[in-house]
Amino acid sequence: MSERIVLKGRPAYPGKAAGKALVCPDSIQGWAGVSEETGCIIEAGHPEEGKSIKGKILVIPYGKGSTGWSGHFHSAAVAGFSPAGWLFSHIDSRCGVAAAALEIPAVADFPEDVDIFSVIRTGDHVEIDGDTGMVVITRQ
Amino acid sequence: MVKLTEYEQKMYDGGMGAFKQRAIHKIVDYANALGAKELCTVSKATVYFGYHPYLDAVESEDYDEIFSKMVLCDNENVYKLDSFSEECFAQTCVGPCDHYCHEPVGISKEVFDKNRKFLELTREAGVSIAGSCTPYLSGWLPLRGEHFVSTESSNILMCNSILGACANADGLEASAWSAICGRTPLWGLHIKENRYATHVVEICCPSETPLDWDMIGYALGKKLTEGNERPVLVGDFKKPDLDKLKKCFSSLATTSGCEICHIVGCTAEAGTLEEALAGYEPKKRQTITLEDYEDAVRANCDAGSADLQMVVLGCPHYSLAEIRAVAAILKGRKVADGVSLQIWTDMAIQQLAEVNGYAAIIKEAGAYLLNSACPLVCGRTVYDRITTGVAVDGAKQAHYYHSDLSSRGCKIFYGDTEKCVEAAIKGRWEVQPCRNVLF
After folding, report:
1. Fewer beta carbons under 10 A from the terminal one: N or C of chain A?
2. Are B168 and B204 in the same domain?
3. Contact, B142 vs B41, CB < 8 A?
4. Which CATH number goes with the domain that contains A132?
5. What ipTM was reported for this prediction?
6. How confident is the model at residue B434 (pLDDT cuts 50, 70, 90)?
7. Where in the sequence is the domain holding B255, given as residue range(s)?
């Protein structure tokens, strides 16, 4: 029996994407955060250390650390390790640039009473629509 | 959707060439991602140009192709490097090598040559070579209310907080887009009403030394877990100077995405706590305790002792005063065999260190006064010499080394400048009681 949850945020970059969620409530640091050679999280002590961002819907609150935040995700994308889409709970400039640089669908700024980090779990199947802001979560 | 002026629309439609058109298209994408309504004019920029390691993701020798893919983010089209905005003074941030030498850095001649070639190409397009993460030390100073972009996170904190200038942490690509088209989204800290403090943080830990302020920044960043927080520091702290703030802001921007940090009685928009809060009730009141401070030290400095192969000072780039202090410790002494003691600054400060004889003392001691980069930014082969231990006096370096060097099994030590220099002379980091009986 699968569970289906629908959320709506602000459309931040157009297009549709689907994939497994990689949920990072403490974000991922830019510098030394994601390997540009493997697409895996390398931030020391990160709860999802070792997991690949490739093809995932990254669920993060905001950017963290170096101003090069977007650049590291973009390099990983150019090397073939692009996430499928982004969900940002509170967009900031680092995430805004990353959305524009990677050109993958993004939805941001969910209502105050929606905590995407408690609603979405790593491994959930997530569909996002960057034109309407609709997010559909399916959990087996 | 963002609304453009007639001038911006002309650029957007290609009336000022394909290079500027692509840049403003990306700025519009960025503005729409943020939900910005209009753009604003940028008059100063620092950009992350040169042959940086991340560019190796593009397997090409053609800089136009590399720039198009990695900076203009276009995988389909190649743009010929064209002129940057005439309204915006742009200079380079740190690069991947010293501007004049490569061997002491641990970088190949091939990378050195390619870096100089790339920097020359962008210089011809209008980007001055500066190689600095502390551009305010050599005259790049946006004034109160002036809109700027920068690729150095600590510089963004410094210019927003101390000078009252306006910027968001845009990142490598967007800073370049802005330097080319002269525009950035009018959003976030570019709007006066968005700059007031949201979190009141009381400093209840040591605040006398540069290391203290490095740890305050590190611990503060760990507490900012909600995103877009704008702290104001209060309490019975010792008022910091520019060199201490340099440390504080670099570590704060390491553990958080913080872009402005008010300090009562010190920063531009915080003459008083009331001024910093601008009539708003703070979302949270927090404290940085001695325990937070000690946790920050432990996070950066590994336990135990080890022989050292490298000691790195100058993160962020050293001021003349900091170089003078190191020269005073090194005078008449020698760095241990097998240790590379590196002191990083920019070319302008390096020249002043030459004029004043500090550079000669450093050279005589067997240490290196280097410019335009740091090991973290150089990456590639710079860590190859490290087999058992490295020591640094900047928490930003220490923090990221823990990721970059984690697979090498070496120890990463962090301490104040004097302890690092003495360790370089001895060739070994020894555990010893210090002021806070920690390391």
Report:
1. N
2. no
3. no
4. 3.50.30.10
5. 0.95
6. low
7. 196-298
| Rounded CA separation B121/B127 (Å) | 9
Say yes or no: B85 contacts chain A, CB-CB below 8 A: no
Contact A98, A29 (CB under 8 A): no
Cα(B391)–Cα(B241) distance, integer angstroms: 24
The pLDDT of residue A67: 76
Strand (E) positions, B124-254?
Answer: 127-128, 148-149, 183-185, 199-203, 231-234
> Chunked in runs of 10, what are the mean pLDDT values of chain A (140 residues)?
92 98 91 87 90 97 80 92 96 94 97 95 97 95
**What is the structure's pLDDT at B8?**
98
CATH for B408: 3.30.499.10
| pLDDT at residue B437, rounded to an integer | 46
Angle between helices B210-223 and B290-300 (to 10 degrees): 100
CA distance B1 to B223: 34
H helices of A21-121, where?
Answer: 69-78, 93-102, 116-119
Q: In total, how many domains does chain B have?
A: 3
Chain B residues close to A99, C-beta within 8 Å: 29-30, 33
Please give, rounded to a whole number of angstroms, the shortest distance from the CA of B207 to a CA of chain A: 23
What pLDDT sits at residue A43?
87
Among the candidates B261, B283, B298, a domain finishes at B298
State which residues form the domain around A66: 3-139
**Which positions 102-121 of A are in contact with B (Cβ < 8 Å)?**
102-103, 106, 108-109
Mutation target vs B (from A49, A64, A67, A90; most B CBs, 10 A cutoff)? A67
Active site (annotated) includes residue A66: yes
- Res B405: pLDDT: 87
Domain count, chain A: 1
DSSP one-letter code for B3? B
